[in-house]
Amino acid sequence: MDPRVLALLGQDLFRADVLTLNGLDDRIESADIIGQAQELMADDVGARHSFF
Fold it and tell me: How confident is the model over 1-52, as pLDDT tens digits?
């Protein structure tokens, strides 16, 4: 993690930010679940793209 981000947001924010294997996308297996969710979010808020 970039130390500037940690200094601004704190480490606790990221403690539960994990992807579960075989349930959501990870760097090894990708079912594009996160990509699909980003598309749905963009549609819901009237944006071209969303990122999370």
Answer: 788 888 988 888 877 766 665 666 666 666 777 888 899 999 999 999 998 8
d(CA 3, CA 8): 9
Is the distance from CB of 38 to CB of 52 less than 8 angstroms? Answer: yes
Cα 26 vs. chain centroid, distance in angstroms? 10
Q: Any alpha helices (H) in 1-52, and if so which ranges? A: 3-9, 33-45
Give the start-to-end residue ranges of the domains of the chain. 19-52
Other CB atoms within 10 Å distance of the CB of residue 44: 9
Beta strands in 3-47 (DSSP E): none
